[in-house]
Amino acid sequence: MRTIVIQDVSYLLTVDEHDTVLTDVTVVVQDGLITAVGDREVPRPAPRPTEASTPDEPVVIDGRGRLLLPGLVNLHTHLPMTLLRGLAEDVDLQGFLTRVWAAEGAVMDPDTVELGATLGALESLLGGCTTQLDMYFHHEAAHRGAVAAGSRHVIGPVFMDGPGPDGLAWDERLALLRAWRTALLEIGGPEVPLAAMPHATYTCSPDHLAEVVATLRETCAQPGPDAAPVRPLLTTHVSENAAENADVLARHGATPTAVLDGAGWLDGETPFVAGHGVHLTPDDLARLAASGSTVAHCAGSNQKLASGALPWEQVRDAGVRLGIGTDGCSSSNDLDMWQAMRQAALLARLTSGRPDVASAHEVLRAATIEGARALGLGHLIGSVEPGKRADLVLLDLEKPHLTPVHDVAALLVFAAGRADVTDVLVDGEVVVRGGASTRLDTTDLLARARDRGATAARAAATAAAATAAADAS
Fold first, then answer.
1. How many Cβ atoms from other residues are within 10 Å of residue 178's Cβ?
2. What is the reported pLDDT for 48?
3. What is the largest CA-CA distance in the chain?
C-alpha cells in the first residue's frame, strides 16, 4: 500500500460544504485515497514490506509553513496551444482564429500536439492546476502528453463540419468518438469522463450537433472493455463574443444556446460545460440552469480579445453553475489559474458595482469543487475530505506577500500565485516536488518546444501577411 503523509500542515482549506479551514493538521493518503484528515496526533501508518521484502516507508511531506488545498480545475483550455503563445496579438476572436488556424494547419500534427499538451500540462501542474478540461485536435496525442506529465486530463474528439486542421471527415470524427473509451483505457491516467467536443455552433450544424450527443450516449451505454460505468461529458464554445451570436442567429435564427438545446444537448442527462458564455440572454441562462449546465468563465481571454465581460452576478443568480478557465495560451497567453481566479473576482465586482459579489470563497469553489462537479467528478475530487482521491496542492506561506495570514480564502484569490506552489499530488501521486516535475525531463521538453514554436511562428507570420495584403486590396 502506497502511503503519503502530509505532516503538520499550517493551514488546510478543505472546500467542504462549510468551507472549513483547519490549522496544524495532518493528511494521510493511501493508494491515492485521502484516508485521514486530523490534528497532529493522526498516526502515521507503520512501514510494511513489499513483495520484494524491502521497506515500503511512507512518503512524508513537511507541511509546516505550508497551505494545503484541493487541486485547481481549469474548466476550459487548449493545452497544445502553448506552442502558439504570442502568435495572434491585438486582434479580436475572428482575427485570432484566422492567424492561429493557419499555424495549426502548418505544424500541429499528432507529435507536435503531444509535445504541446505535455508542455501545457507541465505549466498547469507547476501552478497547482491538477485537472484540465482540454479541447484540441488529435485528442489521443494530447491526452498521452498530458497524462505523461501527471495531469487529470479531460479531452475527447473535436468536431467540425469541415475538415479542420486535422483534415478529418465527419464520419471519421464519429468513429474516433466510438473508439475513445477503449483508447482512454489504453493510455491510462487518472479517472476522467468520456467527452465529446464540437468546436462551436458556428462550425457544426444543428444536425451534426444532435448526432454527436446521440453517439456519445450510445457509446457510454454499450458494454466496454472494463466493468466500470462511463460518465459522459459535452463541451463547446458558446457565445464567446457578440459577433459569434450574430453569426449563429443569422444562420439558424437562434442563439448558440438555443441551437444546442434544439439539438438535444440540454436535457439534463449529460453534463454540459459551455466555454466562455459571455453574451448569454436571459432565455439562454434559463435553459442552462434548467439543465444543470456550467459556464466556464475565462475572464483573462475574454478581456484580452475584447470579447466582453461575463456578468457573474447575473449568471449565478439565474442558477447556472460557474467554473473558472484560462482558455488557451494563444488567446490568454498563460495557464495561470490564480490569475484567472483574481480576474474573475475583480471583473464580477466591476460589472455588478458591488464589492461583495464573487467572494473569495465563491471563486475558490468555482475553481475547485464546482469545476469538479461540472465534469461529473465531484464525488472524487474538488475538496480535501476522507474518501476522495488525493488531488492536492501545497503552497509556501513563508513569503512576504503571504504574511501574515488573516483570511485564507482572500489570501489565495487576491495575493497568492503559481510561484508559491511547492508540491502537487494527482490521484495520490506526487507529480511536483519542491517546485519541479517528478516525471519529465524538462530540459529536453523545452528544447523541442522551442524548435516547433519557431515553425509555428513562420506559418502565423505568413497568414498575417496574407490577411494584411487582402485588406489592403
1. 14
2. 47
3. 77
